[in-house]
Amino acid sequence: MKSLQLLIVMCVIYCVPVYAQNVAAGKVLDAHTGKALAGAIVQTQNGNKSVITDNEGNFKINVPIGQMLQASHLGFTTLAFQAETYSEVRLSENVNDLSAVTVVGSRNLKRSIDNSPVPVDVIELKSATKTLPQVDLNQMLNYLAPSFNSARQSSSDGTEHIDPASLRGLGPDQTLVLINGKRRHTTSLLNNQGTFGNGSVGTDLNAIPVSAIDHIEILRDGASAQYGSDAIAGVINIVLKKNTRTFQAGVTGGVTSRGDGGTSNVNLNWGGTLGKNGGFINLTGDFLYRGKTTRTQEHNLTIFNQFALPEDAANGGAFTYDFSADPAALRAYDDSVLKARNLKRADFNFQIGDAKILNSGVFYNLSLPFKNNKAEFYSFGGFNYRDGMGFGFRRLPSEEWNMVYSIFPNGYQPNTESHIYDESVAVGLKWKYGKWNMDLSNNIGNNRFDYIVNNTVNASMKENSPTTFKAGGHAFLQNTVNLDASRYFETVAQGLNLGLGAEFRYEKYTIREGEEASWKNYGLYTQPDGTTIDTLGLSGGSQSFGGFTPYNAGTHDRSNISVYADAELDVTKSFTLAGSARFEHYSDFGSTINGKLAARYAINKVFALRGAISTGFRAPSLQQQFFSYVSTDLVNGKIGQSGFFPTNSDVAAFIGIPKLKEETSVNASAGFTVSPGKNLRITVDGYYIKVNDRITLTGNFGQDAYGNVDSVIADYLIPYGANTARFFVNSVDTKTLGVDLVTTYTYRINNNNKLDFTLAANYNNNEVVQVNSIPEKLASQPDVYFSPAERALIETINPRTKVNFTINYKVRNLTVLLRNEYFGEVTKNGFPFGEVQLHKGKTVTDIALSYDFSKHFTLSAGANNIFDIFPDRQVYSNSYFGVFKYAPVQMGTTGTFYFVRLLVSVAGKAK
């Protein structure tokens, strides 16, 4: 690390700007309309030096007059031109030419998505955010990319605050996220509340301000051999803005049709030049507030229990029914107590809906070339803070084991407050070594999650219980050092690009214990013979979210080293062959070698075939290996304490759970592209993904699948404060079959009017093909080891079909967006006490209008889900006695969301 720090200091010292003897300047324009093109890239043909045009299309680049340059912009044909003191460069529109974008999936700087051997989507956000009703990145991608899925969850502890997301229906931890081509750290949160992505660890995309992003590249293909483990489903690369001499501000306000979920977003982006050699700095600040939504209904749970109350609450204790035999009596007694206390049944509804979120952050992107452009120092990163409030299960006064009646005589609705800190910094140096392009970088990121539980009690403390608890938290740190080298050989066939590199990665995972009252059961007593008994029969720890115990707390780390080789050969002008190989060694899981082969063959200028085959590898995350916690959950249909124990724990050894091993995969894809004209492009890609030894969460050992207690395990768990025990296991092999379709078409009516059409669709079928050998001691409980409900979370909880049809109509200063998003059917399994329910496919319609009052001011307004579409209501047996009206699937449970947005842009002049 000291040598790296010294290198960075030397970079800064030698980055003193000097004035070049020759300066080329000019403006980049749309050849059809004559309007300036902001954000165009002007660069030398070898790519050693580049600048970005400002909002007026102006550029200035330090090169000798007469040198050949090229200008490119997303959606326009790249144009080569000769450097002049001042020149106007006019680019012709071509929706199929995306060569301005350096895409993932290839290390060839000459490669564009139009001639890539693997499918890559490029989502340009700079202009798209004018009309998008969504304000956070997860939801934007959910509506823009059919292969991407993310739905907000409710009553799910930390998962309410960090939305799980995935590609092609695979787990959140099977998609690799990059920023500017560098690996992004994951969150410290492990999803464990029976939601989509159960048992996985993803990347918090919402920690990256949308206003800092230029565009997003989604590689829809296995890429472990190219970028390392976790890239089984694909790669999401977020490319930050490089705008210079511009200031942009956006203010968005919105609310749902039910008057809740009020949203406010303020973002600022400024770009400036650094030095005289084309350097820049781009800064972003973003603030987002989203109020909670309430999607609840009256339930049929027993609110009061005559024998649990400190005194008879109504009718002088006249009710003496056998409640277990006469449900009507339960309802009658509830009604009598409600009347006596001047309450309504609705006062005891659960808070169900989106959590309240306050999200704020800053991000930067910086480049500082050396004089003579022999090298470039770069850096990017940011800090994000999120304060969230989600809600757990309401504790009803009938639950005497959870009650302190002197504090909450009518029960209580706990809430879990999150404090999430996410920070990252990447620094690097690019330079030329002969004809090789070299890149040395260090990227460090950390995610910290703290929990505070409010409006709750530790029942075992009785009247001495506080109502707010600091419950501890967890953190994950990742530091990655990369050295990459690439070279293009023009004389080998039609061109050969060779890439070589090495990576060292260090990871650390920490669980911090909460204050004692948040986790301790003060009624437990250890007898002289070593057995533990419960003397009070009251719940310990803060209810809804118990604190992390000293047993849970700890710090664990590991390291990884890898080397790779990557080659792309244009055998002919029509045939491209690519290959990658990667060796990785984990300090805790040994070594692996993965490879990839890809090819593209252009039959003619219109039609091309492409395909790839690769192997993949994903080591269990540190979170999956060492997460330890006791949480409140539905344990076989009832609220109980479910313990999560590492596979190296005494509990795992006692029950017979084996140690975790790595997941391995095979990924194959084949497809074609059609470009019959400059305004139409069609791509179709089919894929097959086989994952062996996929890691899932077991059910609750200590009971069978139907709630019958296993006294041997249950008694063993008493000292741990748990009723049951869950573990991570390599339980199944899965396969995924699917196809992606992307079609874009532009119809120009006249110089001022044009229509853009996009039809994008994904069909995806995930299937568990084998349940792996169950340990002998657990063979009698296959539905606990891998339950039908867990199978449904893999196979059917995400739509098998998603279709996006978008029309953008632009007439002079007015832009109109109309989008229909079809979310296919999903199936939710309520095992063991519920049933299998099919939720029918639904279509969500977005509409928005945007008007440019001038080049500085744009006003937009519209709605997401304007027809207020929801998933099907849950059948009663899956609703926990009517508590959960909807399942958080498909488009989620927000309903119609209206928004208004004002954008301000001020551009400086090129100097």
Structure description:
With 911 residues, the chain is mainly beta. It folds into 2 domains: 2-94, Sandwich (Immunoglobulin-like), CATH 2.60.40.1120; 114-299 and 349-907, Maltoporin, Chain A (Beta Barrel). It is 8% helix and 46% strand. It contains 10 helices and 43 strands. The strands form 8 sheets. It has a 22-stranded antiparallel barrel. A hairpin with a 4-residue loop joins strand 16 (263-274) and strand 17. The longest helix is centred in the middle third of the chain and has 14 residues, at 327-340. It is globular, with a radius of gyration of 29 Å. Residues 378-866 form the TonB-dependent receptor-like beta-barrel domain. Keywords: Cell outer membrane, Membrane, Receptor, Signal, TonB box, Transmembrane, Transmembrane beta strand, Transport. Residues 1-20 form the signal peptide.
Map the helices and strands:
Layout: H1 2-14, E1 24-30, E2 41-44, E3 50-52, E4 58-61, E5 68-72, E6 79-82, E7 87-91, E8 120-124, H2 137-144, E9 148-150, E10 165-167, E11 175-179, E12 182-183, E13 213-219, H3 224-227, E14 234-240, E15 246-256, E16 263-274, E17 279-290, H4 327-340, E18 356-369, E19 375-391, E20 415-433, E21 436-454, E22 469-489, E23 496-512, H5 516-519, E24 524-526, E25 532-534, E26 554-570, E27 575-586, E28 590-602, E29 607-618, H6 622-626, E30 629-635, E31 638-644, H7 650-655, E32 663-677, E33 680-697, H8 711-717, E34 724-726, E35 728-748, E36 753-771, H9 782-785, H10 788-795, E37 801-811, E38 814-823, E39 826-829, E40 836-839, E41 842-852, E42 857-864, E43 897-907
Parallel strand pairs: 1-7, 11-14, 31-34
Antiparallel strand pairs: 1-4, 2-3, 2-5, 5-6, 8-13, 9-10, 11-12, 13-14, 15-16, 15-43, 16-17, 17-18, 18-19, 19-20, 20-21, 21-22, 22-23, 23-26, 24-25, 26-27, 27-28, 28-29, 29-32, 30-31, 32-33, 33-35, 35-36, 36-37, 37-38, 38-41, 39-40, 41-42, 42-43
